[in-house]
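Box 3.1 A note on notation
Throughout this textbook, protein chains are presented in two layers. The first layer is the amino acid sequence; the second is a token string describing backbone geometry. Keep the layers aligned when reading.
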Amino acid sequence: MTSSIFKSRQVTFLVGPNRVEFNVHQYAFTRLSAPLRAMLTEDAKDSAEVGVIWDDVEPSTFTSLLEYAYTDNYSVPRLPKKKKSVAAAVLPNQTDQVDIAEGEDWWSVSSIMTWMMDNDDRFGDCTRFGKWCYGRKYFETDFPGPQPYWHDELQRSDCTGLATIFMLHVRLYALADRYRFISLRALCLQRLRESLVNVVLRAEFCEALVEMLAFAYANTPPGDDLRMMLLRYCIFQMNHLKRHGYLYQMVMEMPPQFAAELLLEVPQGLWESAL
């Protein structure tokens, strides 16, 4: 496969509003994407040099697409540590100083993974069985072998930059979906699910969640896998999102269909147990 990639001709892509130039071996893309295979093959009939303009794609997203095209993988950046003045008083599993300063009570908030483990129904003492079943249905994830470093970083209170990581998966998913990079699309969804399972619902992530939802509703149709995953995360964490004002923010800032889709996606069993 590698030799076939490097023996193929190079195609120029002009990416982003500033049209940053990237030269790509054609087979790196055409082996994975039927639409690009058709487009680049057709263009080759007319010109020895093919230029493709993607001015609505961020260069950083395109770089991740390139990495996947050549290696069948893409890197997840390390999360930077918070400045010492902010992180100094933070203890493991405690709320961070930004939340304390804002007067927000995040003490009872945990990741989906932690909540599911603490409320495992095998011992017969789960008081919120409906929520536990919902989490198991949509967010149960097997982690074969050693867990990647970013699982741990998403749970740490001394790390920041969450939006960078989550928006990488979301933007790359949208690009893969548009040009039918099927395997990359699946990998983005898998990593987003793992990230949602591991991240602790603190204020910084809530802001990232709002950003992801805005992007999803601007770039995906109803019923899309990405949109549904984010909606289901909101349902699982709705108690905390409402308590801290983020559910109100989402309903006010998102398109009207967000509120409708959110309500209609809540399972009947959860309504019956709550009302």
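The CA atoms of residues 86 and 98 lie 7 Å apart. The longest strand covers residues 10-15.
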